[in-house]
Amino acid sequence: MNGKGHWERIYTTNAPNEVSWFQAKPETSLRMIEASGVGRDGLIIDVGGGASTLVDYLLDAGYKNVSVLDWARGGTEQARARLGSRADEVEWFEADITRFEAPHRWDLWHDRAVFHFLTDAADRAAYRANLFRCVASGGQVVIATFGPEGPRRCSGLDVVRYSPDSLAAEFGAGLTLVESAAELHRTPKGAVQAFNYCRFRLT
């Protein structure tokens, strides 16, 4: 099964609050986005946002230019249904982030738990290239991955685990690490997953 089919199946066989990455409120992401200094008129993209509630909280906080990208239509359809008429305030993309052709640039790029699924070096290179094309000069990047003590597999797939230093090294001199935070995420089934969140500035 190809990658898109894999994620569509997960979204069609699980309720939004049953997937392992579900968070009722994405506290660390919201804190880092606020700390970034991006204004309420700034452009923010949530890469791999799917059915995440991050978009709800960003709209609640007054952010006016929010985009959500996911490969699986099932995820974004769940988010749109939950948002109701507010879904029209959001820019939606159905795309593979390694092949995404962006119509414009964003001031902040957020990715919780996409990058660590890229086990192939060529896919990571394509992701990096797209990130640098998509983020405006001086923009901010928030990426959360499994930490070194996190799981080796998730949702039936292998992952790559990162410390803040190894993630910074993966992106090279184009991004400057501003802050990092460890988080222990408890899945709906009670498992505990070690995450590292990193906020970078495009240089």
Helix vs. strand class: alpha/beta
Strand percentage lies at 25-35%
Unreliably modeled segments = none
Which architecture per CATH? 3-Layer(aba) Sandwich
Number of strands: 9
CATH class: Alpha Beta
Based on Cα principal axes, name the global outline: globular
Which range best describes the helical content: under 10%, 10-25%, 25-40%, 40-55%, 55-70% or over 70%?
Answer: 25-40%
How is the main sheet built?
7 strands, mixed
Which whole number gives the mean pLDDT? 94
Radius of gyration: 16 Å
The helix count comes to 6
Question: Do you know the CATH topology?
Answer: Rossmann fold
Strands of the biggest beta sheet: in what spatial order? Answer: 3-2-1-4-5-9-8
In CATH, the homologous superfamily goes by the name Vaccinia Virus protein VP39
The tally of domains stands at 1
Terminal CA distance: 38 Å
Topology, please?
Blueprint lengths: L2 H11 L13 H9 L7 E5 L6 H7 L4 E6 L2 H11 L6 E5 L11 E7 L8 H14 E12 L6 E2 L2 E2 L5 H8 L3 E12 L5 E11 L1
Parallel strand pairs: 1-2, 1-4, 2-3, 4-5
Antiparallel strand pairs: 5-9, 6-7, 8-9
Structure characterization notes:
By secondary structure, the chain is α/β, with parallel strands linked by helices. It has 6 helices and 9 strands, in the order ααβαβαββαβββαββ. Helix content is 30%, strand content 31%. It starts with a helix and ends with a strand. The strands form 2 sheets. It has a 7-stranded mixed β-sheet with strand order 3-2-1-4-5-9-8. A two-stranded antiparallel ribbon has the order 6-7. The protein has one domain (20-181): 3-Layer(aba) Sandwich (Rossmann fold).
